[in-house]
Each structure stands twice: as C-alpha cells, then as structure tokens.
UniProtKB/TrEMBL annotation:
Taxonomic lineage from the root: Bacteria, Bacillati, Bacillota, Clostridia, Lachnospirales
Family affiliation: Belongs to the GtrA family.
GO cellular component terms given for this protein: plasma membrane
Name of the featured protein: Putative flippase GtrA (Transmembrane translocase of bactoprenol-linked glucose)
Species in which this protein is naturally found: Anaerocolumna jejuensis DSM 15929
Stretches assigned to the GtrA/DPMS transmembrane domain: 11-125
Amino acid sequence: MMKKLALQIIKFGIVGVIAFIIDYSILFILTDFFSVYYLLSAAISFTISTIFNYFCSMCWVFEGKKNIKKRNELMIFIFLSVIGLGINQVMMLILVEQIKIFYMISKIIATCVVMIWNFITRKLFLEDHKKRRICTNE
C-alpha cells in the first residue's frame, strides 16, 4: 500500500513538474512579452496546464472510478481545478499586492499550495480505491 502511494506521488510529481513548466512559461511569456496583467496571465496559464494535467493524471497517475462516465470525471476535475485556480489567484494577489513578492516567486509559492489541494482532492473524488483501471476513452 505504501509502495503504491509512493509511486503515485512520484508520478504525480512528474506530471506536476511538466504542468508547472507549461504554467510558469506561459505566465512569463504573456506577462513579460505581451504585457498581459499578471493575474490574467496566471489564469490563462493555469487553465492550459490544467488541460495537460487532466489527461496525464487520469491516464497515468490516478485510478479513475469505473462507475463514473468520462464526462462526469472531467466535470469533477474541472470543478476541483477551478477551486485550485481560485486558491492560486488569491494567493498571488496577496503575495504580489500585499506582501510585495515578485509575481514569478509568488507563482511558485501558490503552486506548492495548489499542488497539495490537487493531490488530495483528486485522490478523494476521482480515484477508484478498489482496483486498477486501464486508461480508456470510455
């Protein structure tokens, strides 16, 4: 059981690092090269990385519930991600505007908190705790 959880955390970390690179890069490019307001850039970059994260997470990291349709699984994932986006935005706003931390550093801090939210909520609400399912496009 602990070995399975450790492997799952490693896989989640790999997907998370790639999603973070996507998120962080898009945030930087939109803000610094296209002068998009950092909170709008953060929302756009978060959304794009979440799409990547959904496909990788549900096929490779989490054992999706058999009794749930893909559309419903996606809706739950999106709902949980929207809450994660809210956490991200509030943290960035506070860290940048109130505490005066550079927005790229603030993004790293916010991402760490959202990462914990994502792992716990996806494990609770999206994973089949009974047995392993092979990823299909049901």
